[in-house]
Please model this.
Amino acid sequence: MLDTSREQNPATTEEPRGCLFALSQPPLMIFLTVIGVLLLMASLHDLFLL
Model:
């Protein structure tokens, strides 16, 4: 049978999550740290060894 009850959707009561929530996730921060270290190593290589 079809559910015809008028209950509210629980997902609509939560606040929308923005960019700061996304940046607080450990896998994303690890990824950004690795990219930053690679860029830093490349720039130091260019400055001191070339």
